[in-house]
# Entry
Amino acid sequence: MTETRVRFAPSPTGYLHIGGLRTALFNYLYARHTGGKMLLRIEDTDRTRFVEGALENLLKTLKWSGIEIDEGVMLDENGEVTEKGNCGPYIQSDRVKAGIYDKYIEKLIEEGKAYYCFCSKERLDNLRARQKADGLTPKYDGLCRSLTLEEAKEKIAKGEKYTVRLKLPKDTDISFDDRIKGKITFNTNDMDDQVLIKEDGYPTYHFAVIVDDHEMGITHVVRGDEWISSTPKHIFLYQAFGWEAPEYIHLPTVLNKDHKKYSKRNGDGMVEDFIERGYLPEGLINYLALLGWSPDSEEEIFTMKELADQFTFDRVNKTGAVFDVRKLDWVNGHYVREMSVEDLAKAIKPYCIEAGFFWRRLSRRKIKSSSSNLAISN
# Structure
């Protein structure tokens, strides 16, 4: 039986979002449930969005949460970023420098499954503007598809800038089975010839993710359902290379109280904010596990091990899950009340100091009597 290998592959573009932490958690729980491995890969090929210090913050947040990384990027005992495993590098920019993607893109180009595109940004912007004005879905019009490989190489020799695009077949259905959503089918006429290699030479997400998942032996891709529309392109790339595709599991969206996406772009739900507000890792993780997944019982309080023992994707909802702060407070409150007086005192001390309390006058009796009503330690 093939070992389960899952991965969490965030981009270092800022603080970790609650939705991202839940994705990492579901990957981790499935790996532990099946006796498999959890990998952490950093997808930093979009250099325009790179945020200094984001990687270190991500690793510290995952460590705080109790999610253990078996392979990939992690922190060593001194708190320094390191890598562990035989499939590295696990940071995509390092994989670019190692030339890992070169042979794969050359294979696609030589076999006519990808092509060089010399369209300028100005032309593409104008094309999209016209399509929107006409009520059409913006997508590339295939101008460079008809160039022969010889013609394209002549342009490159003259110094013309280019990208490399996926050459999708016309009017072809691409289907895949999603563990949660069921069978999903897209027609290539509704899809775009996605850029695989950008003008700066870096691979896009859509290309690098396929190569990396294949080379790292990923058996299950567990990610948010915003990636469903991209999956047919990924399936096509697996077919183009003659590789077996992993199983896809797209998780339901985390929603805010207005039933809109709990969005990182809107500044909602950064894990760092919950840490600063005093939530305990056990409380936040326990609640996130219940956000879109339900156990085969009426219980709601679980240790990480108990979650892993029960976790399956068969009990993950198809629809979005609303992030309910009151429910989080209730779950977190359970863990606060379970703390010893000493641990509680240590946990609330920085908040008392910040609030201007004179710490040495805060008696053990006050701490103990207040602990039974605390939901969060702020």
